[in-house]
Design a protein that fits this description.
alpha/beta, Rossmann fold, 6-stranded mixed beta sheet, 8 strands, 20% strand, globular
């Protein structure tokens, strides 16, 4: 059987961490899987080399990573032929999941998250059956001075962590594992899901 492709686009590395985690979870469930960066491979990735694919892209300034947008536009027909899922890695989802968020804040963050995902689908003309928004991270220690300042300002406005001396991971790893498990179950018995 062909491996499952966990194809990702990242800026600061957190989406790579998520993709590696997904590939490891699939391995634990008995699948062969490999995580690949769509923007870093010497030769373009071909989804037809995979039995299924999970694509993960980070969101910055309301846009998914441009290399993922281009990859999906160029490979949509191949993606449509295999079971696939999309993961949008965004700090807005952290606002949705944060217990301290008011109902109004949660609704605003959820609307922001959905708007960005819908924009991705419209741009790429690809809409997989499974979609998951995953809270990202504030990786202050990896940002340059200007980006650190901008991200701290944005975090303050969103009531997120502003301590720039360390990184802040908001990903709900257990919820992500359940998403991977549901995707794996779909591959085992497509009619069951």
């Amino acid at each position: 059987m062909k491996p499952i492709g966990v194809l990702y686009a990242t800026r600061s590395g957190h989406t790579r961490r998520i993709a590696d985690h997904i590939a490891n979870e699939l391995h634990e469930r008995g699948f062969e899987a490999e995580a690949k960066n769509v923007g870093a491979e010497a030769a373009p990735l071909d989804p037809s080399h995979y039995s299924a694919a999970i694509l993960a892209a980070s969101v910055h300034y309301g846009q998914h990573a441009s290399e993922m947008v281009e990859f999906v536009k160029n490979r949509r027909s191949e993606l449509d032929k295999i079971p696939s899922a999309f993961i949008s890695v965004t700090l807005s989802e952290a606002g949705v999941e944060r217990p301290e968020s008011s109902p109004q804040e949660r609704a605003r963050f959820a609307a922001d998250t959905q708007r960005v995902i819908e924009k991705f689908f419209e741009e790429t003309e690809w809409r997989p059956a499974r979609v998951k928004a995953v809270a990202g991270a504030l990786l202050y220690t990896k940002y340059n001075l200007l980006l650190r300042f901008v991200m701290k300002y944005m975090a303050k406005n969103a009531h997120a962590d502003t301590d720039t001396s360390r990184d802040h991971d908001y990903t709900d790893w257990l919820t992500l594992d359940r998403f991977v498990d549901e995707f794996a179950q779909q591959l085992i018995s497509p009619a069951a899901v």
